[in-house]
Amino acid sequence: MKALIVDDEQSIRDALGRKLRREGFEVVLCADGLEGLRAFHAERPDVIILDIVMPGGMDGLTVCQRIREVADTPIMMLSAQAIKEEDVIEGLNAGADEYLIKPIRLNEFVARISALLRRSQLVVSETEQVYSDGYLSVDLHRRHVHVGGRKVHLTPTEFKLLAMLLENAGRVVPQRDLLEQVWGREYIDDVYYPRVYISQLRRKIERDPANPLYILTEHRIGYRFEKQAPAPPR
């Protein structure tokens, strides 16, 4: 596996790079956003670690947006401040899959990188690989999502979340199960993750995100995907 680390602090780049090399990764290190974007196109990494704040006119969020225009590569953002829900939403809008706050604990960093890579490798059940009702179409095997005939981009985490809900359609999936199955056991205490990601997913697939039809909230329990009747032929 190849990891691209983009951070303007050399001490952080070197520490994260050494840790990942010990875990068997090939590592590419970059000091700013433009260099990181060029390295992404040249090296085609399996996972990307991006600092949010970097000099040179191209911050981590911009790099993330540019990468998301062409690839679904898992992306972890590094933040020097406590994460607020608004920060997560901003990162999700840019296409990030994960956040980690500095100072970074190296063992946690590796655990979360491993969990992020697992999320990107979706295993599809044989029961139902395609859902379509005329408005929303989801092909789990090909990882394609169309809304109103238009292809919609989902990050690896968003897609795995949708896939889990769809494979359990009609049944409530408890929040704890979502955290463990989508994010990993390392995230059991990150209770705000499902709420933020569900909100983002609704904005992408629902006709009216404020009044969802597909992804319903079961208060204090979890979430349920509700299939819709196919639109009648014209």
Discrete helix count: 8
Q: Classify the fold: give the CATH topology of the largest domain.
A: Rossmann fold
* Largest β sheet strand count, sense and barrel closure: 5 strands, parallel
Number of folding domains?
Answer: 2
Shape: globular
Low-confidence stretches: none
The radius of gyration over CA amounts to: 18 Å
What structural class do the secondary elements suggest?
Answer: alpha/beta
Please give the order of strands in the largest beta sheet: 2-1-3-4-5
End-to-end separation: 49 Å
CATH top-level class of the largest domain: Alpha Beta
CATH superfamily of the largest domain: Response regulator
Average residue-wise pLDDT: 88
Notes on the protein architecture:
This protein is an alpha/beta fold and 234 residues long. It has two domains: 2-120, Response regulator (Rossmann fold), CATH 3.40.50.2300; 130-225, Winged helix-like DNA-binding domain superfamily/Winged helix DNA-binding domain (Arc Repressor Mutant, subunit A). The protein contains eight helices and twelve strands. The protein has helices at residues 10-22, 33-43, 60-68, 85-94, 106-120, 156-167, 175-183, 192-205; strands at residues 2-6, 26-30, 47-51, 75-79, 98-101, 130-132, 136-139, 144-147, 150-151, 173-174, 215-218, 222-225. Strands 2-1-3-4-5 form a five-stranded parallel beta sheet, sandwiched between helices. A hairpin with a 2-residue loop joins strand 8 (144-147) and strand 9. Helix 4 crosses helix 8 (192-205). It is globular, with a radius of gyration of 18 Å. The N and C termini lie far apart (49 Å). The relative contact order is 0.11. The mean pLDDT is 88.
